[in-house]
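Re: the 126-residue chain
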Amino acid sequence: MVEHKHEAMVSGLYKQMKAVFENSEQAMYLYLDDVHKVCNKRFSDLLGYDSPKAWAAVDEPFPTAFVAAKSRRTLVSAYQDAIERFIGATIDVTWQGKGGTVDTRVILVPVAYEGHVLALHFITPR
């Protein structure tokens, strides 16, 4: 039941923001937890995945699957601040993509949907 609700939340917020996801010049993703996440084509391309669905299907803990070790603490801390304290952040993150690492600047902001807080990320290569 909770699983279905989380899927519905991520899907619902994505649908509400579909124009932003499809038209943003930045890579972006929306994150609730390791299973419930969605990204745009720019982000899946940035990390070397064939599609946003292929990226979202990765079934490993998010930090170890996608974030270079040196950036994990920074990203997790910013995420926790967004979810727990409603604080946005701009941080440097090195991602672990299929073809190697990618240095980026990330804008991370909390967003609320149906009483739950998720984190929306905008990513620009550096």
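The mean pLDDT is 95.
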